[in-house]
Amino acid sequence: MNSTDEQRKHFPAGPIAARADFQAAVRAFILNASEAGVRHLWWVSPDYADWPLDEPEVLDALTHWARTPGAHITWIGHDFERVRRRMPRLTRWRQSFSHVLSCRSPQEMAGPDMPTLLVADHVAVLRMLDLERMRGYVRVDGADVQRAREEIDVILQRSSEAFPAVTLGL
């Protein structure tokens, strides 16, 4: 496996100043996860409308990465029904790869209070500071990544399962 410094080279550290920057950073995290040797991704957002998760290239990269032994995504959000309606390819992917994916929804956190984060193992973090103006950053500093993972752990402690892979109807 690569050293942490070698892994960090796969992630575009720097500011995010527009929607296009954010989407490019999300794509880079997913497209480079396999090559960087990332085993765990954490996706956190109140709304995934701006995430390019339904794009064929992104789903192909996720599929390749998900076949890596030990690969896992922890996906935290509020409105998975919107994801189901707006991202049909991702929803089908979620059904096929439910074994590498945990979807959670926080019980006591309002949408505006939820951070928007994408964390790759202990290697890199994408953090949005202002969703309205699409401002944020990608950092590969271990302390920043650790703070994000601790924040995610707090959210997970007060969350429940969400977005089932298969919905049963009557």
What can you tell me about this protein's structure?
- This protein is α+β, with helices and mostly antiparallel strands and 170 residues long.
- Helices cover 39% and strands 23% of the residues.
- An eight-stranded mixed β-sheet has the order 1-7-6-5-2-3-4-8, with helices on both faces.
- The mean pLDDT is 91.
Quickly list its features.
170 residues, 39% helix, alpha+beta, 8-stranded mixed β-sheet, single chain, 8 strands, globular
Q: How many helices does DSSP assign?
A: 6
Outline the biggest β-sheet.
8 strands, mixed
Class by alpha and beta content: alpha+beta
Helix % is 25-40%
**Strand arrangement in the largest pleated sheet:** 1-7-6-5-2-3-4-8
Chain-averaged pLDDT = 91
Elements, N to C (H/E): HEHEHEHHEEEEHE
- Inertia-based shape: globular
- Radius of gyration from the alpha-carbon trace, in angstroms: 15 Å
The termini sit apart by 48 Å
Beta content comes to 15-25%
Give the strand tally.
Answer: 8
Put the structure in a nutshell.
Helix content is 39%, strand content 23%. The protein is an alpha+beta fold and 170 residues long.
Annotate the secondary structure layout.
Layout: H1 4-8, E1 14-16, H2 19-36, E2 40-44, H3 56-66, E3 72-76, H4 80-86, H5 88-96, E4 101-106, E5 116-120, E6 124-130, E7 135-139, H6 142-157, E8 159-161
Parallel strand pairs: 2-3, 3-4
Antiparallel strand pairs: 1-7, 2-5, 4-8, 5-6, 6-7
